[in-house]
Write a structure and sequence with these properties.
The chain is mainly alpha-helical. The chain has a domain of 60 residues. Helices cover 58% and strands 0% of the residues. α1 packs antiparallel against α2. The longest helix is centred in the middle third of the chain and has 21 residues. It is flat.
Length: 90
């Protein structure tokens, strides 16, 4: 479904009055990536167990990408991991 939506968006970029310079490349890459994952997950030559394994693998990859995108430190945050009680405040 995602691949079809990306392809529809790709086509609609060229329907406008102004032809995109670089935007279509990003949408095209997303469409290609989604299509490859869909083809890999729906391969007719694999067993049901392999299909489940591939689905779980894709979910784990997605979760890993999500965790990696979370910002854990801000410029104003202290990077020290020492508890506040053990700091010397004198």
């Amino acid at each position: 479904m995602a691949a079809a939506d990306y392809v529809y968006c790709f086509a609609s970029l060229f329907a406008g009055a102004r032809t995109p310079v670089f935007g279509h490349l990003s949408v095209g890459r997303s469409a290609f990536g989604a299509a490859v994952v869909a083809a890999w997950l729906n391969d007719p030559g694999i067993t049901p167990l392999e299909r489940v394994c591939r689905g779980l693998c894709e979910q784990l990859f997605s979760a890993r990408e999500l965790v990696g995108s979370i910002v854990t430190e801000h410029p104003g945050m202290s990077t020290s991991r020492a508890p506040l009680a053990s700091r010397d405040d004198s």
